[in-house]
Amino acid sequence: MRYIIFFSLLLISCVDKILIEGPSVQPKLVVDAWFTNVADFNSVRLSKSAPFSNNYPFVVFNEPVSGATVTVYSQDKSRAISFSEDTTGVYKTSEIAEVGESYFLEVQGPGGQLYRSSIQKVEQPVSIESLDFTFDKVDDIINTTSGGYQTIPRYYFNVSANINDPEENQNFYLWKSIGIFEYLTIPPGDSPCNFCKCWSTISPLVGSVNVSSDQYINGSSFSVKVGSILYDRSTGFLTRLYQFSITGSAFQYWNAISNQQRNTGTIFDPAPGNIAGNIVSVGQENEEILGYFTTASVSYNKLLINRGSEARKLNVNEPNLIPPGDGDCRLLYRNSTHIKPVDFQ
Amino acid sequence: MRSSLILLVVAVFPSLCSAQSIDSIRLTKDYDGLLFPAFADTIEGEFAVKFYYNYEWIKDVKIIQRQSNSRLAEVLQKSLVDVRLEPLQLNRKSIVLVNTISASTTTRAQDAIASYSVSGYISDSQSGEKISGATIQMPGTKFATTSSSNGFFTLKLPEGMYEILVNAVGMSGLTKRLRVYADQVVDIEMFESVTELDEIIISGLASKQLSSLDIGLQTISTQSLKSMPPLLGEVDIIRSVLSLPGVTTVGEGASGFNVRGGNVDQNLIVVDNAPLFNSSHLFGLFSVVNSEAISSLSLQKGTLPARYGGRLASVMDISLQDGMDQDLYAEASIGVISSKLKISSPIIKDKMSIVTTGRFAYPSWVLGFVPDQNVSSSKAGFYDATLKAAYRISSKDYLSFSTLFGGDSFRFGSDTTYSWSSRMASLQWLHNFSQDFSSKLSVAYSRGDNVVSGKSFANEFDLKSFIGSTGINYEFFWNKWKQHNIEFGLQSNFYKIGRGDLDPTNESSGIQPFSIPNERGAESSFYFSDAITLTQALSISFGVRLSAFAYLGNGLKRFYQENSPINEASYVETQNVSGNSVQSFFINPEPRFALKFSIDNESSIKLGYNRNFQYLSLLSNTMAVSPIDTWKLSDNFLAPQSNDQASLGYFRNFSNSAYEVSVESYYKIVSSVTQYKEGARLVLNDFIERELLMGKGKSYGVEFYAKKNRGDLTGWISYTYSRSLVLVKGDYEEETLSNGEYFPSNFDKPHDLSLVANYSLTPKFSVSGNFFYSTGRPITYPESIYVVDGYVVADYSEINQSRIPDYHRLDLSFNYKMLAKKNRRFERSWSAGVYNVYARRNPFSVFFKPEYQGSFPQAYKLSVLGTAIPYFAINFKLKP
Do A257 and A239 have their domain in common? Predict the structure, then answer.
């Protein structure tokens, strides 16, 4: 709830974009590692950080690191799960984590240097009771071409998840949501249309890390905002929600990233700080490794909203949007397919 | 009695212009045997001097001149010795003949001389205000004292003739001749240092720097405040203090000030013995204390005297005017930003008086200068008011009541309103038990409130926080022994702090109420200090302050696993505890020491050392102190802040105090200072202990100050080179900042230059200007960027290793002042000028954000008041 207070104040101020050169530093290794009880999420992505310089806004800043040896060990080393390079810099495994067990990650870089994470436990999963939504009218502020602004009313489907937090222990949650939007196009002329309906997947649905702890709500049920979908089409919309039960220290890390994302760049902002991960360079403690080895158990739930019929129930007119007449829907919407997802049946 | 005193006590001023002093005048002709009146006439015709005397006394005196080419002084002394008169040079032209000490008293053995008590009040001749901290010295003897806070002084002096030198801040020093033959009362009136008698002024400030024991004491007289270029038509105390060496701010739009590398919360601001918590209007652009209401202001940034404590870096002590001994008058001023009114009125002549001021501001005018739609549609306003009523019950008792309240409201766009306010009230009772023992009892209440109001639809809320303090001070001043100046007292403060109370303000608001329980604590101190005059040249002062603090808590006690960092993961449980139990208790001795060695009449060396403790912190990890910051008392997670400071200074006056120069250096070791984990969230955080760290630090610097007190051009230059570094090295990685190495604090600005000048074109017109330059504040730039889980993250590894561009600014002001005349009932003055003349867009901060989600972060520079702002203000004074 404290996140609702979103401070933005500029005072009597002018804001100018400036060009600065960050200190020149060696690229650092970035380890983005996940090991859960769902194989799809188990991956280790190795890359290098890029020096900050906004002189070159199109710099490649995600250079993959290929040719590493990646292994996850159980705490007592009785189990070793090796990850193999799937695409460049992305290492995968089909094995899954055991809930309640603790693991650590070892990466041997292409140069032979060994990197090791702290030990992370796979916490008990907590189920997502349900997903539901509210249909809300919001006065959006739109900048006009003349430099002023005007408010226009718009409708949003606000999707939230309901969770019953277990009382016996502390719980830390991280949510990843995926949205699948159904789109329609009009065939050119009278020709039959094979690809006039498609489903576009947006992942993640919200552009920032979504984490929470049960600090204020331990043992009670609570709801968490999953996404806000503009009512601009009457087609279906599917929300897939994955809830990761993470460790307290992983929460600290992801929450720090979330805080950085929420900064609005004003004088009320906390001074920015370093976000420390849990991976060290063995024998070279001064080498800073970015990223985190996150372990979790994952629970899942979904919600399909038929936007048109839901809006009609509340006597809100359908949006006045004529589908484009280009025929192949898949070319218009990113990451889309003509194969109907199973949940749209 | 009074009339005889007036006869005996002749006010004279020491000779300043050696070229024309009676010592340097040589008589080339022979005047031997001439009667004095004729001699005087001849000398007046020949040299540019004038004699003042009682004709009856010297009508028969014959001039004794043994040889030609004798010095005038010698001739006068020899000629006048039989009639027990002696010449005193009043100024470069005037020689006064005064009664001299009787021969019999001077020849008596020292121990056989009876001592008498000389006491009285020191006051401002114009306003009638009592002057505290004035130094009273007998040059050439070991006798000296200072006036107490109610202007009272007392001295034990053996019978004899003395020259008394009195100096006070902002006042011209004066010399009185005093013949002591019985216990007596001598009330001394002083004049503000800028008067027509320019060439004979000794600046009070300079002489005080030379002669007082305090090191690191900076004072600005109300007079020099008035001659500073006003900011947007307002002369402001904190803005003025920023032009002194060792005082900096993190930037325009930042509340408060930083003294010698200390945080904003390490400054104690007291107004008539009540602490002030929100001292700023409009994010630090103005002070909450109206400069018109002030009688005196001092900033102690070095060795704090033992009677001050509770903060590490500095004490700003402000006294409000009580209007005592003043006739009724009213003053009003109208400016582009604010309008002010002041009324000073006696109620019972010389017994009871009242002064009240009010100020109302409409700074939205300034906002209109900003080309940003969101800003120019913002609204801002502030007000403040003061009242002081004083009652002189008898010559032994003085009672006063002071109150101040002020508030701000700032609405950004249509979303959020920030408002904050200050309230204080204090009752002071000064009592003289005897001529050498007096006391001051004060009871004070003070409160600062902050409210953030969200106005956006369905999210309406109020977030409130506050700090309240109720205190009692009982201070004693004891001057029984002539070489000792003893002070002791007891001070107690009870604090109550609300760190956050969130409430929806509308039934349709989706905000859930949330509240952090209020916390309470009590601080008590006992202090004792003695300033000892060892020899004429050497004095020392030592003191100790014993401070104790009890954290009474908020009814909750938290437990974390041992041997692990305090965070969410190591949290065990929260227990409810009784609200009246002491949860943490601290007791600390705070030694204070100062030494002054006068090399000669014009220069001195001072040395100081002190240790301070502070039991409350303003939690702020934002770019500057803001209305969302809250106070927190020391508890079992947050240790008291503490430091040790040593300072050394050299003070010297030139050309009879026309110029003052000082060099002060300091080294400060901060053994504990409140710091924050990286990216800590402090707003409405019930588990605040997880975000706090204890750091160490060191600050050092050297401060140069040169001031010109007299002439058409007056002003000062101050330059400071200083560093302020912080070290946070905990047992765990997350409790360590910047790899456990020293990093610059937010206000580490090594070079800081201020130039303040005022040039009188004519007696009525003057031009004044300010120029400020400082190194840009440290800031953390992202070193690199990287991607995790599809999100672009900036890597800010090295704290404060970069700097924003340097700050510099010039202000100019053209001032007109109608000359003050005794019977003039209406006075008018005005000033017009430009703030930030060359419209530099001084950056307040540099921040980083992506242009759109997931894109590469861009750097932006935020400038506050980044344009030239013209202003005009007119001031009226009316005496019925």
Answer: no
Q: Which residues of A touch B454 (CB under 8 A)?
A: 5
The number of domains in chain A is 2
Confidence (pLDDT) at A322: 66
Instruction: Annotate B732-792 with DSSP letters as a single string.
Output: SGGG-SGGGS-EE-TT--SEEEEEEEEEESSSSEEEEEEEEEEPPPEEPPP-EEEEETTEE
Both B500 and B639 in a single domain?
yes
Instruction: Clarify whether residues A202 and A233 are in a common domain.
Output: yes
Choose among A13, A23, A216: nearest Cβ to B802: A23
Give the residue ranges of chain A where pLDDT is below 70: 1-15, 21-24, 53-61, 140-150, 190, 216, 263-269, 320-327
Contact flag A11-B785 (C-beta cutoff 8 Å): no
Residue where a domain stops, chosen among B54, B86, B103 = B103
pLDDT at B100 (0 to 100): 58
Residues A140 and A95 in one domain: no
Residue A251 to chain B, least CA–CA distance (Å): 9
**Between chains, do A4 and B461 touch, taking CB under 8 Å as contact?**
yes
Q: What is the 3-state secondary structure (H, E, C) of A3-72?
A: HHCCCCCCCCEEEEEECCECCCCCCCEEEEEEEECCHHHCEEEEEECEECECCCCCCCCCEECCCCEEEE
Containing structural domain, residue A91 = 2-124+247-296
List residues bridging with B161 in a β-sheet.
Answer: B179
Which one of B502, B683, B784 has the shortest CB-CB distance to A27?
B784
My answer on whether B223 and B98 are in the same domain is no
Q: Which residues contact B4 (CB under 8 A, 6 or more apart)?
A: none
Tens of pLDDT, residue by residue over B715-757, are: 889 999 999 999 999 988 788 888 889 999 988 999 999 999 9
- CB contact under 8 Å between A10 and B841, yes or no, is no
Q: Are residues A181 and A304 in the same domain?
A: yes
The pLDDT tens digits for B1-28 are 333 332 222 222 232 233 345 667 778 7
Q: Which of B365, B502, B786, B835 to mutate: most A Cβ within 10 Å?
A: B786
Backbone angles phi, psi at A119, to 5 degrees: -80, 130
Positive or negative torsion for Cα B312, B317, B318, B322: positive
Could you give the CA distance from residue B258 to residue B264 in angstroms, rounded to a whole number?
A: 5
The tokens describing B659, both together, are: 């110029």
Whether the CB of B274 is below 8 Å from some CB of chain A: the reply is no
Higher-pLDDT residue of B197 and B302 is B302
Classify A220 as helix, strand or coil: coil
User: What's the rounded mean pLDDT across residues B430-436?
Assistant: 88
Residue B170 domain-assigned?
A: no
Whether B375 and chain A come into contact, CB under 8 Å, resolves to yes
> Do residues B86 and B225 both lie within one domain?
no
Chain B residue with CA closest to A249: the answer is B569
Of B72, B103, B134, the one marking the end of a domain is B103
Identify whether residues B224 and B94 lie together within a single domain: no
Please indicate, yes or no, whether residues B537 and B671 belong to a single structural domain of this protein.
Answer: yes
Does any domain span residue B406? Answer: yes
For residues A216 and A240, state if they share a domain: yes
pLDDT score for A251? 93
- Residue A84, chain B, CB below 8 Å: the answer is no
Q: Which residue of B has its CA nearest to A14?
A: B863
CATH of the domain at B232: 2.40.170.20
Q: Residue B811 belongs to what domain range?
A: 217-878
* Same domain flag for A66 and A46: yes
For chain B positions 607-646, those within 8 Å of chain A (CB to CB) are 621-624, 626, 628
β-pairing, B659-676 with B692-708? antiparallel
**For B821-843, what is each residue's pLDDT tens digit?**
656 788 888 889 888 899 888 88
Asked if residue A192 and residue A73 are part of one domain, the reply reads: no
Domains: count for chain B: 2
